[in-house]
Structure formats: structure tokens, C-alpha cells
Amino acid sequence: MDGWSIEILIKEVWQIYQAKIKGEKIITEKPPFQFKDYVSWYLEKQEKEARTNAVFWKTYLQNYYWKKIVRRDSESQQASNKGNTIRKVFSTLDMEKLYQFLSQQQISLHTFLVATYNFIIHKIYAHTDICIGTLSAGRTSTALEKQLGMFAKTLPLRTKINPDKSIAEILRHIHQGILEINIHQDIPHAVLNELRLETLFVLQNASTTYQQIKIGDEVSLEQYPLDISYSRIPLLLNARIEDETLKIDVDYNPTYYERSTIEILLLKYEKMLFQIIHDPNQTLQQTDIDLEIEKEQKIIINFDF
Fold first, then answer.
1. Are 46 and 186 in contact (CB under 8 A)?
2. pTM score
3. Any idea what the CATH number is for the domain that residue 47 is in?
4. CA–CA separation, 99 and 107 (whole Å)
5. What whole-number distance in Å separates Cα of residue 249 and Cα of residue 228?
């Protein structure tokens, strides 16, 4: 099941438990169809749209050179799936200002967070053509909103960055790109097999908080964060809004990245967030994400010469 389905399941368990302890009749809303019906419909839809989607993705990814988006600190001759986690809480980010900014720019929170990541990757590594993975809920019909199953899809998002354009203009371009790939979210297997995604950026559904779910006076479900020991992708950024605060968990492979590399990446990400909100009309080239310690080192080097 996907994360959306877990939310549906927990709500149903809560309703059944409440009815039980109150001695009421258990009434659960039946889904309009079973998952097997969806699979049959989906396969038919996929067949009808196969040619259109194949042409779109071939054009979309044409001439893209798959590269390591974040330069690795070390390489390994053998494939590694080790995993570690770093959690970052953006406690100084004014969420009211953020929502006002999103409304003014007419973009989604998802667009904003993904774009910010692409911006710092460009600033640090000078990449002008970036392709990272994003997650689509895959629930393309309202009839699927209360359905249990695995609907989520990983989609490649390609962004070509011109640092001389304003941040606002690039944000709109990325937003349009996300809408476009969601229209063609059924990726042909031939294209899927060629994807070499190094980074996956996910924004979790914010409709339910899993920190603590009270089912009754004596029963509650509590969330306990677990540090991972397995990673199927070098970098997974998992963002969410919790208690009106932006939080991002980064699952990374320690075979390739040192902890300090990820910590610096997150500090630069935070600095870019504030600069975008403060002045979206500045060009990307005008932004400065150098940390104070980096600036001090540059001064020392200049004096040495």
C-alpha cells in the first residue's frame, strides 16, 4: 500500500473502534469498486495512451546525460544499499509568509520545495540540465481517493536552468513541467528501464499527522521515527509539514556520502528557501548560498596569496 492508503486504513480502524466502544452499529463506507477492477481499467487505459506517452517521454528525456547529481565523496566497486538518515527542522521558516508567497506566485508547495533543491544543485555543481525523481499520488480520479492500493508512481522531472532568468520565471517553468509529467504519468517500460535517478524528492500528504492518533481513551497510535539501514537510491529527500513546520528527512547512502556533505546541503537549502521568498525577482545567479564558514575560508585563502 502507499502512504495515502495507510491514512485511509487508520481512519477506518478508528471508526470501527469508536463504534465498538460506544455499542453502536459499525457502518463503513464501501469503495465504489475493488482494486482488481481498477487494475483492469488501468491496463486498458495504459494501452490506449501507450503511443502518446511513449512519444512524450522520448522527447522529454532526449539528449539527457545521466550523471551523479550530487558529487559523491567516495565510490565503491560493489553496489551498496546501506542507509543513514539526517532530519532537518526548518523552525525559523515563517509558514504564513511561505503560503502567501506560494499564492502570489501561483505555484504549489511541492513545486517550491523541488525547485529549491534544483537551484542549490545548480549553484553548487553548475548543472544546467537536472533530472530528479518526484512522486505522484497516481490517483487521477476522485473515485480513487478512498481506495486502498498502491497507486503512487515515481516520475522523472527534468529542469533546464538558465541562471540569468528570474527565480519567479524558473519557478513557473518547473511548476508547468510537474503538471505536464503528471498528465503522462504512465511511463513505458522501455523508458523506465533507462532511468538512472540519483535523487528522489517526496512531499508527504499533509492531511493527517501520524505523530499521535487517539483511537479511544485507552488506545492511541504513536509514530516513532526509525533510522534506516537500507537505501534503494543514493538520496531520498522526504519533506512534510508537521505542526505547521517544514521538516525534511534525508535518507542517504553512507558508502557514497559523508554525513557532513548532507548537512551542508541542507544548510544551503535552508538559505536558498529564505532568499527565494525574500526576492523572487532576482536572478538565480544573484543568489548567494555560501555559508559563513565557507566565506571565512575564502578570506583566509586570499590573504595567503
1. yes
2. 0.83
3. 3.30.559.30
4. 10
5. 11
